[in-house]
């Protein structure tokens, strides 16, 4: 009973988050639409899990094993959408190919089953032994969990590397995603252990219930903080609270874009290791949401990308025209570590700082 309630709540919250990000994308941020599609897809997965958990698969035989396919798709889809939503540099084509091939291989492997009639599918389900460690259903469950763990882990590492270059409050929203990704990774580890200790429907139910709780927590935390940020603005910005959710007019957006460009021309400001979204918004005299909107519409990039590119341009000049060490140059232009400087430099120039200096220094 409690399990059905939690799964139903997870399904409803997935729909709610899909609608939340959909309307956010319609009125404020285009990339939110990607996230809305993910949560709509997740609601379909939760619906399949609810049918399975409630024991009603005999009424929907064509959904048998479809939940496994959805399970294989969740992590790659989430990873793809997160990179678009936060405008993180794209994954390599080899990694994206790998995450696409795994769900397709499952479809090919199970193609004969999916082509069966509903009656034959139900008969095959009754013959399955799901309470053994090496049963087909339990192995699929373990494989899905392990595959999801690998994809989410890579996403989490890349996310931390990207966000770690800036002050913690540069992207308050990114911090929420980072924390919930970590919680999800820990939960996936426990779920794999459950599949070994309690194979079968018990471990599947525990996994699905835990994921539902994760969705409920994320939904509350994400929406609550979005509202909290508006309430926490200083009194002198109270008039902007109403405006910050709106879409900036084109003329105003162009003016603010030029102002932001001029602000970032100040080297002392740009190279500040504590540079953050709040500080930039304060200089522009607008809210953080509006600042992000200016970045996306005027520059066609996220604030992180803009800052990275400008810092790397100054670093290139320093590499060509000075004998300072790479570490010194990296810190001088605002990076917090040598590794992050080298990684970003190579992503933008296809060369390491040492290779660039060797190639272009007179």
Helical amount: over 70%
**The CATH topology of the largest domain:** Rhopdopsin 7-helix transmembrane proteins
**Poorly predicted regions:** 227-246
Instruction: Give the helix tally.
Output: 18
Structure classification: mainly alpha
Indicate the overall shape.
Answer: elongated
Topology pattern, helix = H, strand = E: HHHHHHHHHHHHHHHHHH
Share of β-strand residues: under 5%
Distance between the termini: 74 Å
Q: Give the domain tally.
A: 2
Mind telling me the C-alpha Rg? 24 Å
Number of strands: 0
Described by strand count, sense and barrel closure, the largest sheet is: none
CATH architecture classification name of the largest domain = Up-down Bundle
* Mean model confidence by pLDDT: 77
CATH class of the largest domain: Mainly Alpha
Pfam families: HTH_18
Keywords: DNA-binding, Membrane, Transcription, Transcription regulation, Transmembrane, Transmembrane helix
Protein name: AraC family transcriptional regulator
Domain HTH araC/xylS-type: 254-359
In short:
With 362 residues, this protein is an all-alpha fold. The chain contains 18 helices and no strands.
Model description:
There is one protein chain. α1 packs antiparallel against α2 (32-53), α3 (66-85) packs parallel to α7 (136-163) and α13 packs across α14 (288-299). This protein has 362 residues and is mainly alpha-helical. 76% of the residues lie in helices and 0% in strands. It has 2 domains: 2-231, Rhopdopsin 7-helix transmembrane proteins (Up-down Bundle); 266-360, Arc Repressor Mutant, subunit A (Orthogonal Bundle). This is AraC family transcriptional regulator. Residues 254-359 form the HTH araC/xylS-type domain. InterPro entries: Homeodomain-like_sf, HTH_AraC, HTH_AraC-typ_CS. Keywords: DNA-binding, Membrane, Transcription, Transcription regulation, Transmembrane, Transmembrane helix.
């Amino acid at each position: 009973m409690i399990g059905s309630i939690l799964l139903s709540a997870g399904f409803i919250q997935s729909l709610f988050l899909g609608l939340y990000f959909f309307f956010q994308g319609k009125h404020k941020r285009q990339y939110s639409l990607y996230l809305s599609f993910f949560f709509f897809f997740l609601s379909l997965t939760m619906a399949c899990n609810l049918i399975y958990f409630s024991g009603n698969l005999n009424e929907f035989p064509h959904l048998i094993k479809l939940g496994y396919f959805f399970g294989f798709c969740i992590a790659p889809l989430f990873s793809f959408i997160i990179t678009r939503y936060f405008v993180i540099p794209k994954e390599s084509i080899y990694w994206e190919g790998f995450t696409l091939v795994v769900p397709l291989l499952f479809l090919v492997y199970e193609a004969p089953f999916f082509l069966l009639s509903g009656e034959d599918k139900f008969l095959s389900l009754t013959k399955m032994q799901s309470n053994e460690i090496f049963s087909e259903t339990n192995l699929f469950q373990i494989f899905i969990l392990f595959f999801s763990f690998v994809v989410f882990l890579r996403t989490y590492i890349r996310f931390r590397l990207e966000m770690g270059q800036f002050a913690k409050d540069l992207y308050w929203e990114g911090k929420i995603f980072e924390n919930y990704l970590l919680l999800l990774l820990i939960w996936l580890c426990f779920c794999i252990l459950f599949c070994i200790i309690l194979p079968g429907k018990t471990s599947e139910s525990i996994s699905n219930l835990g994921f539902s709780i994760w969705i409920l927590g994320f939904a509350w935390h994400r929406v609550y903080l979005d509202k909290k940020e508006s309430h926490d603005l200083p009194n002198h910005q109270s008039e902007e609270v109403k405006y910050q959710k709106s879409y900036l007019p084109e003329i105003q957006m162009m003016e603010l874009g030029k102002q932001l460009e001029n602000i970032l021309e100040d080297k002392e400001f740009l190279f500040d290791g504590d540079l953050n979204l709040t500080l930039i918004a304060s200089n522009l005299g607008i809210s953080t949401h509006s600042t992000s909107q200016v970045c996306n519409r005027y520059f066609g990039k996220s604030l992180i990308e803009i800052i990275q590119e400008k810092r790397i341009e100054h670093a290139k000049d320093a590499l060509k025209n000075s004998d300072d060490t790479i570490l010194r140059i990296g810190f001088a232009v605002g990076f917090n570590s040598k590794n992050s400087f080298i990684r970003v430099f190579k992503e933008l120039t296809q060369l390491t700082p040492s290779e660039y200096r060797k190639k272009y220094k007179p």
